[in-house]
Amino acid sequence: MTSTRKTKPSPGEALAEMTPIIRGLLAESTDNEDRPFQTVILKSLTHAEAVRFADTPAGAAAGYPEPLIKGPNPPLYFQPLIADAAQYGEHLPKEFVAYKDKHHAKPQIVCVKGAGILYVERQYNDSMLPLKNKVALVTGSAGAIGYGVCRGLLESGAFLAASDLAGERLNELTAELNALAPGRIIGVPIDVTDKSSIAAGIRTVAGAFGGIDIVVINAGIAMAAHLRDIDTDEFRLLEKVNVEGTLFTLQAVADHMILQNTGGDIVLMSSKNVPSPGAGFGGYSATKAAAHQLGRLASIELAPHDIRVNMVAPDAVFSEGKFKSGLWEKVGPGRMQARGLDQAGLQDYYKNRNLLKARVTGKHVANAVLFFVTRQTPTTGATIPVDGGLPDATPR
Fold this sequence. Notes:
This protein is an alpha/beta fold.
């Protein structure tokens, strides 16, 4: 992940840029073709004491900064001689090979001169959950689908970075999910229309957990208008969030995952409106179709890196727990007025129009995401509809 900053990075930023490479080098190979690496959670220390310790190899014999404990093997000390994070991948593997040849094990503590310390977190190593030691980033978390997906990932053992625009909704979501999985979630404000915001968010996740294995691209906004009535400025905002936001996120996380070199899973939140657009919803349908196509292209281009890209296409999800859909808060009133329904009646309308007469929930969407990210089948470039069965949304 090449830095675009012109100012000198802080110790935390410098450490975060090389963290995914180090995390990849610490991963252990497995015999499972679908899950070829067992990853670790990598924590960072960048306070003054940690930087001093990292700068003084001889000090390793003295007291270690908390919460580190002196083990049977010393830390690996790395002195970066280059400023471009993309080049770390050429130098760090040699350091790891030399360390393993000498100590017959991989380091559990890595000290980076001038930046700080990285150490392997052991607290959750006994977990038997399918996403043990996997790190997931979910954009657009603070809504019905986002909350459902975040909860599903945590319940499956993942460490989670819940992302949305900064504000009360993200704070409330993070607090509720932290009660479910203490220590395994952080809230990360990200504006997906801003490349620098995405880059900063990824550095934050790397600093907290070591890297990213799973990304769910869920951020999006809606617009209800017939084609003849679409306001150009409003459509441009729709395109900026739904299309450019998807593109920018794909670019940034692809760079990160390639640097980490342990594969990865990206799930793009598509829509029933991609194969089956609705009247008065054309702007949203068009931008979601463009985002969907970006996902399909990414599945082709990232497959050589064992990065799988798949899509989930839900129909109407109104709420999950106390978290409501931002999309339906915007378009719901118009839909209710057009059909002469109240909110309960509108939800019944969408339930009764599908073959299974099913109310689609955030948990259902989460289950589709989990199918992909737990790698139940060798699949990329595919779409799971979560709509109760809508014949007009074929091919399925």
